[in-house]
Automatic annotation (TrEMBL):
PROSITE patterns xref list: ABC_TM1F
InterPro entries in the cross-refs: ABC1_TM_dom (IPR011527), ABC1_TM_sf (IPR036640), P-loop_NTPase (IPR027417), Type_1_exporter (IPR039421)
Organism for this UniProt entry: Emiliania huxleyi (strain CCMP1516)
Family annotation (SUPFAM superfamilies): ABC transporter transmembrane region, P-loop containing nucleoside triphosphate hydrolases
Transmembrane segments: 109-127, 225-247, 253-274
Keywords: Membrane, Signal, Transmembrane, Transmembrane helix, Transport
Membrane topology summary: Multi-pass membrane protein
One GO term describing the cellular component: mitochondrial inner membrane
Stored CDD domains: ABC_6TM_ATM1_ABCB7
Cell location: Membrane
Protein name per Swiss-Prot or TrEMBL: ABC transmembrane type-1 domain-containing protein
Length: 664
């Protein structure tokens, strides 16, 4: 029976799929983030069977420890020696566990780890001796060969020994907890820093709610992994090995064989059921992602939901995900029930066989009553850690499933990286020149023939991504050869408000600003903090952005616009079409050139439908007649309506009349 259970657990993964059969086919589909971003690393594989020569059973048994370790640590990375794919780095659970023993860590942390491991060994060696202390007390009472005070002392020592074991356990936790929490903090900070360094375009294509959920679950998995591997798996295996060794040494091969069969059947059944839960755990994670994302999006876009009267639709979508979560929860309870029943049959059946052997030996005088009590106590003492072993292995698999998507994020390398030892961007005051030299867009950035890629051009100035060909320079320095922090501190893009206080948003552009500077900037625009609410109203947001208006003085501002009225007063307007620069000039010059810009202006005027737009459209020919021969166009700063009005006033009598306009 034992060999059969282990052999069943060693079958190929394709044979371990009944847990997935509890779910509808749609429930095992990867989530949207997994489909777009890390499908090769995190998708819950179905492992389609492949016809090949069957592996001998002995070979499978020989590979059992390695396979268990592989399933715990590396998940779906099959060949550890193979180099990581392009654009990735090697990151596994071994990398994560390295935070417990940092190469340049504090010496105290390493001493704490060693001390906690030493206490672990002492506690386990001590606890396996406790049942034999109870044996001596029972034999002393039954035989009556020792004084009553000695029997009472042995009984009391047995109780004290249990308390000592508890003290050793708690001391181990107290020693290790600061190290574990420090490792968790450093790992979390490093993971957050790595996510911040990923390509902006890639992050922009992901679901914010789902990414935040992946990050939170990854931290939970990291915490569970540190706790379970150090304080559950190792101690349980050590205690089991010591107990089996003592049984064989004291009571012979028959007791050793029965106890070994009991433990093997117990562990084999536990691992078999847990292996069958892999697909279920992945489906639970995906459903949890969908639930959180739908709730997050519905609350974030609550105004759009209400204005479109789609409350019932959102509730139905959320309820569909809840129904799937309900089915998964029922399947999980059934799996846990099967685990518990199988463990009970294996353990209590083995214990019954051991007691039958003890009864025969006690009857024949080979063993004392105390020996029977010691054997029973030792096996009962193993029952709790062995029972937790199945759940521990299950929690480790859950932790690795939780961490798998986060580890996929950590494996991903940003494409935009400064060279090693890149110098900061040289400061040239306010006279900096931004130049796009032969810039083109690679095939990964093509988004359609009708897209001009104006936004991509602005992103390249910040090096949010690199051009497919050419280079971008500031004062002659290639931005690809300087550090990213110095570049992005010099070049600003957009004004975005965080869901935080007004002071936080004003200070964000210059973290070194004093409280007086922040207060002065807020006072100049009449900014008042609202009394409540999670996000500021639109007027509040507009005033926050107005604080930054003075930052545009004496600097080059690159604006991406769709509405042409917003760029009429700009010194230079660059017109792009299908990724190429086709026109350049002022508003007046571009209108009179009758090119792409003029056609866009005409189209927007036609789309307006109001009298003002019609006046602007019909007045363009008259306006262009003034560009070369009149100074009115310069006085009107490129506005068609102002230019024609000034020309009409030129014939009116008044003080200061002259060629080019009327001066009041």
């Amino acid at each position: 029976m034992v060999v059969g259970l282990i052999a069943a657990w060693l079958l190929p993964a394709a044979s371990l799929r009944p847990a997935a059969s509890l779910l509808p086919a749609a429930s095992l589909r990867p989530s949207s983030v997994a489909q777009r971003a890390w499908q090769p690393q995190t998708q819950c594989r179905s492992h389609t069977p492949v016809m090949r020569e069957p592996e001998p059973l002995l070979s499978r048994i020989a590979r059992l420890p390695r396979r268990v370790l592989h399933s715990i640590t590396e998940g779906d990375r099959i060949n550890r020696n193979a180099p990581p794919p392009p654009g990735e780095r090697r990151v596994g659970v071994a990398f994560v566990m390295g935070y417990l023993w940092p190469e340049r860590g504090v010496r105290t942390a390493r001493l704490r780890v060693l001390a906690s491991l030493a206490l672990l060994v002492v506690a386990k060696v001590f606890i396996v001796r406790v049942p034999f202390m109870f044996k001596r007390a029972i034999d002393a009472v039954v035989d009556g060969a020792v004084p009553r005070s000695t029997s009472v002392g042995l009984m009391f020592a047995y109780g004290v020994s249990r308390a000592v074991y508890t003290f050793l356990q708690e001391g181990r936790y107290l020693l290790f907890t600061p190290v574990g929490q420090s490792a968790l903090r450093r790992f979390t900070a490093d993971a957050f820093a790595h996510v911040q360094s990923l390509d902006a375009m890639w992050l922009g294509g992901q679901s914010t709610g789902e990414l935040s959920r992946v990050f939170a679950r990854g931290m939970r998995g990291m915490n569970a992994l540190l706790r379970l591997v150090v304080f559950n798996i190792g101690p349980t295996l050590l205690e089991t090995a010591l107990a089996l060794w003592l049984l064989g040494r004291r009571y012979g091969g028959a007791f050793l064989a029965v106890s070994l069969a009991t433990v093997s059947a117990f562990v084999g059944w536990s691992l078999l059921v847990v292996q069958r839960r892999v697909a279920l755990l992945c489906a639970v994670n995906d459903t949890d992602n969908v639930l959180f994302t739908r709730l997050f999006n519905a609350l974030l876009c609550n105004e759009a939901v209400r204005t479109n009267a789609n409350e019932d639709f959102e509730v139905r979508r959320y309820d569909d995900s809840l129904a799937l979560a309900e089915r998964l929860a029922v399947a999980d309870v059934k799996t846990v029930a099967a685990l518990n029943v199988g463990q009970a049959v294996c353990f209590w059946g083995g214990l019954g066989c051991m007691m039958v052997l003890c009864a025969g030996c006690v009857s024949s005088g080979a063993l004392t009553v105390g020996d029977a009590v010691a054997i029973n106590g030792l096996l009962l003492q193993l029952q709790q850690p062995l029972a937790s072993l199945g759940f521990t292995y299950q929690e480790i698999r859950q932790a690795t499933a939780d961490m798998r998507q986060l580890l996929a994020l950590l494996r991903r390398l940003p494409r935009v990286r400064p060279p090693a030892g890149a110098p900061p961007l040289a400061s040239a005051g306010t006279a900096s020149r931004l130049r796009f030299d032969g810039v083109s867009f690679g095939p990964r950035l093509l988004m359609g023939a009708r897209v001009a890629k104006r936004g991509l051009l602005a992103h390249q100035a910040l090096r949010l991504h690199d051009p497919g060909r050419g280079r971008v320079t500031i004062d002659g320095d290639d931005i690809a050869a300087v550090s990213l922090s110095s570049l992005r501190q010099r070049v600003s893009l957009d004004t975005i408000l965080f869901d935080d206080t007004a002071e936080y948003n004003i200070r964000y552009g210059n973290l070194s600003a004093s409280d007086e500077q922040v207060a002065s900037a807020a006072e100049r625009v009449g900014l008042l903090t609202p009394g409540g609410g999670l996000t500021p109203p639109q007027g509040f947001a507009t005033r926050c952005k107005a604080v930054l208006d003075e930052a545009f003085a004496n600097v080059t501002v690159l604006t991406v616009a769709h509405r042409l009225r917003s760029v009429m007063d700009y010194d230079q307007i660059l017109v792009m079409q299908q990724g190429r620069l086709v026109e350049r000039g002022t508003h007046a010059a571009l209108l009179c050139a009758n090119g792409t810009y003029a056609r866009l202006w005409q189209r927007q005027a036609d789309g307006g439908g109001d009298g003002a737009d019609a006046f602007w459209r019909d007045g363009i020919p008259d306006y262009c007649e003034l560009v070369d021969s009149e100074s009115i166009a310069r006085l009107a700063m490129g506005d068609v309506e102002d230019a024609l009005t000034l020309r009409a006033l030129d014939s009116v009598d008044g003080r200061g009349q002259g060629r080019g306009g009327w001066l009041w």
